[in-house]
Every structure is written in C-alpha cells, then in structure tokens.
Amino acid sequence: MMRNPADGPDPVPRPIDHLLEGGEDAAPALVLRSAALSRKEVRERVGAMAGWLAGLGLPPGARVASWAAKGELTCVLPLAAPRAGLVHVPVNPLLKRSQVAHILSDSQAELLVGTQARLDTLQAGDVPGACRIIPEDEALASVASHSVELPPSSAPADELAALLYTSGSTGRPKGVMLSHANLWLGAASVAQYLELGRSDVVLAVLPLSFDYGQNQLLSAWYAGSSVVPLDFLTARDVIKACARHRITTLAAVPPLWVQLVEQVWPEEAIAPMLRLTNSGGALGEQLVRKLRATFPQARLFSMFGLTEAFRSTYLDPDLVDVRPTSIGQAVPFAEVLVMRDETTLAEPGEEGELVHCGPLVAQGYWRDPERTAERFRPAPPQSRYGRMAVWSGDRVVRDQEGLLYFVGRRDAMIKTAGNRISPQEIEEAALATGLVNEAVALGVPDERLGQAVLLVVRGLGDEAALRAALKRELPNFMQPRTIRRVEAMPLSPNGKIDREALLRDGAPA
Question: Is 245 helix (H, G, I), strand (E, B) or coil?
C-alpha cells in the first residue's frame, strides 16, 4: 500500500471553474498567438463563455463537444462548460470524421463547436440530429459580444464535468466520466509534486483532449503559472517555442522525447528549463540518460497513470539516475496497491496488478455499465479509502523500498511456449544496444508457440549485429523471430506509439 505520508488530509475539492479565482497577475495566465491574457482576463472570458452557453437553452448536464486546435476556445471551455452546468467533451483535433462521429453519437452531444475546416469534413449522419453545430469563429464572436457573465458555480464535487475519450487499444474509444473533484484534485496533485509556482511557464504541447494534456493547463492555473499552448508540426517547433517563451516546464510522451533528444538544443532553450515530465509510456534507461545529458539542470519526473484514475505514480527526480526504470510511488491524494488477486497483496518482488484507489478515480465509462464493471470494482480490503477502485490490468512489481516497476499490460504480455514475456524487457534490450532509435515488441500468432516475438524498430543499421547483441542479453525464448524496420512509428492521436496499428498493418516498411 503506497501513499505519500507527507500529503496530509486530502484537500476539499471545489467546482473546477473556481480554478482561476484569486491570485495576483504577476505573469500572463494564458499566452495565445494573438494575446497574452492575465488571470483576471481569463476569468472574465470563462464567465462570458459560460453566460453565452447558458443562453443557448441547453438542458443541465448536456454534453458540449469542442473540435479545434489549441486556442481561446479549447482552453476556456473546460471551465466555462461546467460553470454553465454542462459537460465538456474535448475532441482531439487530429481525429478524422468517422472517429468524431462515434464520439458525438456515444456522448449524445447537443452542441459541437469547431473550426470550420474540420466541420466541413463531416458528412450526413455523422452528427446526432439533436446536436447543434457552431463554427469556432462564430462562437468566439458571440462570446465577445455577450454582456452577461455567469458567476462561479456552486456545483457539488461529484457532479459530472467532463468526458475524456480514451484512444482505446481495443474496440471503440470510451468516454471516461470525470467529476469536478477528479479534475480539481488532479490539478492540485500535480501542482504539488512538480512544485509549480507563479514564475513557471508551461509549454502545453500535448492534446487537451488527453488527460495528461488537459492537466498541463489545469495544474498550471492551480499553481498560478503561465501556460503557452502549442500545436506543432516538428520537434524544431517545440525547441523554438521553449527558447522564445523561456519555458520552465515541458511535458511529453516517449515518442516525442525521442524526436526532441535527436535535435540540437540552443542554450537559450535549455537554460530556463527546470522540469521535464513524462507519461503515456515508459522512458527506458537509454532515453533517461539522453534526457539527463541534454538537460543536466532540469528535474526529470517519470510518471505513470491511466485516464480512468488520472495519475497513479511518479518517481522522485532525485532517484531517476539510480532507479531510471522505476515508475516510483503514489502521487498525492492517490493510493496504489499491488494485488496478487482480489484480496491478497503481492509481496515485494512479486508481480501483481496495479490497483488505484482514492478520489482521483473516475466515475466509470459513459453509458457503458458492462465495461465499467470490468474495470471499476470494489477496492481491495486493504484500501484506506474503500469504495470503487480502478483495476488497471497493468502488471507491476514493488521492491523492498516501495518503488514500483512496470512489467507490462495484462493484455499486452507476449505468451510464447508457456513463457510470459514483458514487451518492455525486449524493447529496453534492443535500445541498450545503441543500434536502434525506437523499438516495439509484439506478440504475433504462431501455431507451434502460441505467439512469436515480432520486433519493430526504427533506425536499424545492421540486423545481424542487433540479433547478435540480443542473443547475448536475452534468453532464447525472448529472441524475436522477425525484426522489421520502419521509417517512422505510427502514433495514436495522443502521440503514443500505436501498437495496434503495427499489428493490424503488419508493420509495413
């Protein structure tokens, strides 16, 4: 059982639209392309947008979807919609019309606000009949001319505030139901362990439809920091923005970190950097070393979580050089258990399932009681919180010091000739050779073995040398039967490597 003993009692969550209340305007709260907005100005725009939404006559709890690039609309709506008693459904701007159609239908959205170019791609039948469509420019013009601002809400902490659709490794994306309390405590938790402050400038490069990306915005505002939203095309765009805005805090997922460390960083982009944060996949020892070499003065936070529970663990940056593969311990306001089975805790060194308990646990999947019952189940008897917990399906090991190590997803483990193999172990061995830049290990059907190992790599120079190195480091049953080279790894809309696409497409070269 793990929970930071320094946390003290859990804070009392407030309605999420109160996030910007109070505080001095020492620095802009939101730096857009067109303007830098103070905390007071963002508060005013939240009130105006909430007033405009209220004037549309939507029923309480109606779902309001946004499908646009990062900007005033997508940054203000997460607070404005709940203030108006509505539920925000952010849609990743990288999604295509069929995926958006699913989200609109599943969420039963009654309003869609998006950029005109994206709206123009929708076809007949993509949008529910009761859903009103308003272009982003028209919406912002209406908000700017709206004279009635809604005051901060008094919504109860457990009221639904947002639906975040997971990218989904199997089946269609599902909407995770997040309350005001989930969002508030998630912001407070991250702001606390990152030690964000009023002098910090956060570059928000991740999609705001991704829980990790949205939290960049919310945790920064909770701490009084500045946020610079950025939609980028290349790694160089990120580096230029870091230098231009003197960014102190940068969050990314492993595929983006790989691209970033391959670039040459100018001193003006490195010097202000105080912290780097990673989630959405393991960094691996080699990437940790590269990041530490590129940013020797920055604290590196390796984090682990899932949308259903927001964030589970983080590794103290003081340990990253000596425990580079650990995912750390529980974040503030979370309790993490490693379970052998439904009622028995795993022993140190014994593999078990990560179970997340406490107030960061979401309310389940929207309109999907069957899948909710599979993942959201009563907390183990050892939990101090009780109630519902998220049984993650992630396999982890806890060491004698209480640090956790990710083994693999229950449904991603490779099962070959009676052996259970963690893909991560093969991937780390491949990266450690220095012969590849990225590696993904997959299990593919095999009549004799059950599954055989397919290793997909980027940057391979000499396959024979790679195979020889892997034979020195891994047992025979972990050796890849096939090694395939790709020019670029396919990515999900959230920037993670899309393993399902590699399997589905046969890892095309």
Answer: helix
- pLDDT (mean) for 378-391: 96
φ, ψ (nearest 5 deg) of residue 64? -115, 115
Comparing CA positions, the residue from 217, 193, 204 lying closest to residue 20 is: 217
Lowest-pLDDT choice from 32-36, 111-115, 492-496, 504-508: 504-508
Q: What is the pLDDT of residue 40?
A: 94
Q: Is the pLDDT of residue 460 over 80?
A: no
DSSP-assigned letters across all residues of 298-336: SEEEEEE--TTTS--EEE-GGGTTTSTTEEEEEPTT-EE
What letter would DSSP give residue 9?
Answer: S
**Orientation angle between helical segments 463-473 and 423-432, nearest 10 degrees:** 120
Q: Is 507 exposed, middle or buried (0-12, 13-18, 19+ CB in 10 A)?
A: buried
Is the model's pLDDT at 507 over the cut of 70? no
For residue 229, give both structure tokens.
């939203």
Which tokens belong to 183? 């969002």
What average pLDDT does the structure give for the chain?
91
Taken in order of first residue, the domains within the chain and their CATH numbers are 40-151 (3.40.50.980), 412-504 (3.30.300.30)
Return d(Cα 247, Cα 201) in angstroms, integer. 5
pTM score, two decimals? 0.86
CB atoms within 10 A of CB 120: 10
DSSP 400-458: TTS-EEEEEETTT-EEETTEEE-HHHHHHHHHHTTS-SEEEEEEEEETTTEEEEEEEEE
- Of the candidates 93, 218, 115, 107, the residue with the CA atom closest to the CA atom of residue 495: 93
* C-alpha dihedral, 169 to 1 to 183 to 376, nearest 10°: 50
For the CA atoms of the chain, what is the radius of gyration?
A: 23
Six token digits for residue 127: 């949008």
In whole angstroms, what is the distance from residue 91 CA to residue 379 CA? 31
Rounded Cα distance between 349 and 399, Å, is: 5
Interaxial angle between packed helices 235-245 and 254-261, expressed in degrees from 0 to 180 and rounded to the nearest 10: 80
Burial of 56 (0-12, 13-18, 19+ CB in 10 A): middle
Q: Would you say 278 and 254 are in contact if contact means Cβ atoms under 8 Å apart?
A: yes
The Cα 195–Cα 311 span in angstroms is 16
pLDDT digits (tens, 9 = 90+) for 465-505: 999 999 988 878 889 999 999 999 999 888 889 888 898 86
Round to whole Å and give the CA distance between 204 and 221: 12
